[in-house]
Amino acid sequence: MEIQTLQDVIRHSVAAYSEQAAYRYKVKKEVVDKTYRELGEDSMAVSRMVESLGMKGKHIAILGSTTYQWIVSFFGVTNSGSVAVPVDAQLSAEAICELLERADVEMLFFDELRADVAAMAAERCPRVRYIVSFQAEAARRGENGMGGVLSWEELRRENGGEYETQLDPDQLCTILFTSGTTGKSKGVMLSHRNLTDNAVCLDMKIPAGTVTMTLLPINHVYCLTMDIIKGIFIGVTSCINDSIMHVQKNLKLFKPDMVLLVPLVIESIYAKLKAAGGMMPKKLVAKAAFGGNLKTICSGGAYLDPEYVDRFAEYGITILQGYGMTECSPVISNNLAWDNKKGSVGKLMPNCEAKVVDEELWVRGSSVMMGYYKMPEETAETLEDGWLKTGDLGYVDEDNFVYITGRRKNLIILANGENVSPEEIENQLSRADLVKEVLVREKDQVIEAEIFPDLDYAKKKRIKDVRAALQEIVDEYNKEVPVYKRIHSLIVRETEFDKTTAKKIKRF
Amino acid sequence: MFEELKEIICQYVDVQPEKILEDSRFIEDLGFNSYDFMSMVGEIEDHFDIEVEEREVVNVKTVKDAMEYIKSLAE
Q1: Which candidate in A28, A244, A488 is best for mutational testing of the B interface (most B CBs within 10 A)?
Q2: In a designed cystine with A76, which of A43, A158, A179, A387 is the match (CB 3.0 to 4.6 A)?
Q3: Is A88 domain-assigned?
Q4: How much is the ipTM here?
Q5: How close does chain A come to B51, measured CA to CA in Å?
Q6: Structural domain range at position A444
Q7: Tell me, what CATH number does A275's domain have?
Q8: A489 vs B28: CB contact, 8 Å cut-off?
């Protein structure tokens, strides 16, 4: 069977792994399994729910941390021919509502932890017609002025049965927001083919029944493609980590064979392993920390110091470093246990070709995005004749292994895989009258801001302690943004920044 | 509680217990990264037998904030 859409992925896996556990997670203190058959049935129920509400083909946002319902909803939405818009649950309600508007969202699935967003969307997003709660046991009709809050569970029960629709592999499947260098986040449009080819085209020789644990944010494409879509395709049992607070505990509980991590977590786990070591043999230390089965860690999202590959090997664990970006669904290259080179971010994926233009890496293939949603200028700047300009400097060797040597764009890539646009933060801070010039950068894995204050303004307003006033501006900004976007240190300049001839602040 | 908390903190970051003050900020002063910080909160949950809400943790910036938060949950 040819796999070209997410519907093909689900059908293939329901047939191949039917009664095997697809997902495993905790409900209070109990561990619950959902089989591949149930995953297929529940995702079809969501497709039918979407169609019965007249939302087929519309844009539907999914908001919350990783849960079985989130995953089922994603497949239910996309397999009905609608467009899923996963949203970062860490953003403020205002920021989420802005994204819902920009992505033309007409329906919202939400986790009650973000009831604030549901309430605000009902009031401020006129296009949104249905709001569905993952937890509500019954619909709450009178809750807002637009038909209330519907219950996901109630709708799922009412909409049981088979579902099938004709999907074009090249139709829009999902819009994923990513930080843009212009300061405004961009909606990356990915088709069914973009995602399925990325998940399916490389055989990593992972046997069905392999136990994995998913702990990365699910609105990020690395998690979505590699943990979820690829995981389902190859028939893993994926254990859902309920909170980043419980990673250590859940590793011991679920005993995964394999996990996908970002460098920040890999580095932290290594520090703990090292500290816990003492005189104990390293493999025993690893067994105590990871439950005893962990053999493979896939690393992505940001650059990992290759030294960690050797360090983890001492504990009997193989780290496979890959490279990608949201615009490429995301994987561009990947190291494999039997085909890798130290210092390289891996071999090009079979569906991807690369060339180097003025030192910058350009890639082309079936996983390159359709474009940015409603941003033709940004799309034209990034895509040229099907080639995606990665913004990374690097080269490809004679064996197709990719090496990254630097970055062309200003984007800050933190070790947790989050991308932060310095311009976005600079624009926000510049709105304060006291801020004349500002530069934002990464320092020791957190964000630092350097500000040159408007001293005339300070004088006019009789501000005596300029530093304290600037810190207040920074504190106000920090309150509104996710933790990773917070400014951790503030430098106050006494002189203007050096400028380029175009009067732009010199970054380096 | 302060002493217990200090002991837990020292398992996650390389800092002398006597350098940890009530006003110490986890990230800026004690050198926590976001992942270590959240892992420590998980450990605090077990140690003090409380259930923490992930979204509320972002308001905990100093050791004193943590102690007040733990007290509020234990009540």
Answers
A1: A244
A2: A43
A3: yes
A4: 0.85
A5: 11
A6: 421-492
A7: 3.40.50.12780
A8: yes
